[in-house]
Amino acid sequence: MSISPEAGADLTSHGPTELAELDIAPEVAEGAAPEREISVGVGDNIMEVKNLTVKFGGLVALDDVSFNIKRGEILGLIGPNGAGKTTCFNAMTGVYKPTSGQVLLEGESLGGRQQHKITRLGLARTFQNIRLFGEMTALENVVVGLDARHGTSVLGALFRVPRHRREERTAIERGMALLEFVGIAENAAVLSRNLSYGHQRRLEIARALATDPKVLCLDEPAAGFNPAEKEELMTLIRAIRSDGYTVLLIEHDMKLVMGVTDRIVVLEFGKKLADGLPAEIRNDPRVVAAYLGEPEDDAA
Ligand SMILES: Nc1ncnc2c1ncn2[C@@H]1O[C@H](COP(=O)(O)OP(=O)(O)OP(=O)(O)O)[C@@H](O)[C@H]1O
Ligand SMILES: [Mg+2]
């Protein structure tokens, strides 16, 4: 992180009024990522997960799993508790080193790279258990994400060279645009630990978007939400996709997943059980059995 203490102090000194005066673009792609191509149609494979296996000692948490993510789609990753969904995210984003297999982003192998390098290549994620900087404001949390991609060195930031000052200004404007986009701009100056649970979840998404990802991975972003809050979040996820991002979504609520995804990959006991359109998945007896916890074969 290359935010100097001075830069931090600067950010907190922007009160809500001053923040509101900034010229905020309504669309995330305009405000936060001006060079981004908007409304990318579903197209070629942007990511390939090939024969991915993750073992923890004797436990095979992910077993030879392969699937593709198409550019511009919302792909659901579902499965019962312990199926390996989070492990899959962790192996894709560099938290765990896969035991075997490959993860490709636009043809480039991510295997063995460090997390921040993978972020820089264009893969961002949120966590099942919220991870924010509690003692930083909402805006600062997002600026940290923006910081992950801009060019100023740590030294440049410490000595506040003109380029850094310019970037800081842009970072605040873009950070505000992102907070606006996820619907929590009025809380920009609030410490993230004081935000409501729902706003913390939204802030995590804003922070991940700040890295200008090609693919955004969301690990149960609607966990703990009531049905109305879940519906609002799904609207946000659709808006993110409309802005040209590709989304990989882990979500338990089948109804929700069916309503928002273009395609679904189902995991069970670390293995891929099915891969298809929502309607196909909904009617797949193996998936129904996995979710109801019933044996596939009645005679068994
Ligand atoms: N760091 C770890 N060390 C050992 N075992 C682990 C580790 N992480 C996950 N596991 C195990 O791997 C399996 C898959 O866990 P994972 O968290 O990926 O499941 P999940 O599909 O995300 O489940 P949930 O819906 O409950 O979040 C589980 O049996 C879990 O206990
Ligand atoms: Mg999980």
Write out key terms for the chains shown.
single chain, 300 residues, alpha/beta, Rossmann fold, six-stranded mixed beta sheet, four-stranded antiparallel beta sheet, 13 helices, 10 strands, 40% helix, globular, disordered N terminus, disordered C terminus, binds adenosine-5'-triphosphate, binds magnesium ion
Structural write-up:
The structure is a single chain. By secondary structure, the protein is α/β, with parallel strands linked by helices. The chain has one domain (about 5-290): P-loop containing nucleotide triphosphate hydrolases (Rossmann fold, 3-Layer(aba) Sandwich), CATH 3.40.50. It has helices spanning about 5-10, 15-20, 30, 85-90, 115-120, 140-145, 155-160, 160-180, 195-210, 225-240, 255-260, 280, 285-290, and strands at about 45-55, 60-70, 75-80, 100-105, 110, 125, 215-220, 245-250, 265-270, 270-275. The protein has a 6-stranded mixed sheet, sandwiched between helices. Strand 7 (about 215-220), helix 10 and strand 8 (about 245-250) form a beta-alpha-beta unit. Helix 6 (about 140-145) packs parallel to helix 9 (about 195-210) and helix 8 (about 160-180) packs across helix 9 (about 195-210). The longest helix is centred in the middle third of the chain and has 21 residues, at about 160-180. It binds adenosine-5'-triphosphate and magnesium ion. Adenosine-5'-triphosphate (ATP) binds near residues 56, 79, 83 and 87. Magnesium ion binds near residues 85, 86 and 128.
